[in-house]
Amino acid sequence: MSFAGVSLVGDGEAVGHAINVSAASGYHLLVVNRYSHIKATTPNGGKVVSLPFTVGGHRWRISCYPNGDRSDCADSVSLYFRLDENAVEGLKVQYGFSFIDELEKQDSTYIRAKEADNFSSSHPSWGYRNFMKRDALEKSKHLKDDCFTIRCDVAIATTVDLHIKVPPSSIKQHISDLFLSEEGTDVTFMVSGQKFAAHRCVLAARSVVFKAELLGSMKEGTVASVIDVEDMEAKAATQVAKSHGDGCPGYHRQAFAEE
To answer: Which top-level group of life is the source organism from (predicted)?
Structure first.
């Protein structure tokens, strides 16, 4: 995450330094100084606001309501992340608020794991109405010398990030096509006078006996020619293969190796 500056609020307008981050992710710090004074002078629904800062080519602000943003959360601190520009098309954004000392919540993978919200001109603000109870904050380690610092991590989620569609597996069809074409076959079975071309790697994967015979220490120089399968008729071999082929055409040519 790239550093997008720091805003200090205490008396009047925010001061500090905002950095324009062109990268798709970054973080901004909101330092709330003289918390007791701000709490006493800011009514329910009133807020302090960060400087505007840029991440991913878009301008943002952080809003902090020390006495809650509405009457039903007057005993809490409310925090909101706001798009500070007009945007007709929605922006999918993953964001997170944490206190400056909550390092485990500031890893980029932690932010990327969050569900993205859709920011637009019609819905520019998302956040937490009850970010933290005010009395809990005042008793916590996060409030030091009447001051606390909020870190806001931002990741602009791309269309690719949000809408990756994994196609259904086509390996079954690919194996079927491979077996039907007999391309790459390197071993032949003779069952009651009928030949079955096969791929030794598939046979080895399906049978420990064939693995030892075809790939292991039991492998003989004649294995590359024809292997006679005794005490089995070709019709029976085909039926056994079909019962293990999972409906895949051509798979029966090698499936009987499991028996």
So the answer is: Eukaryota
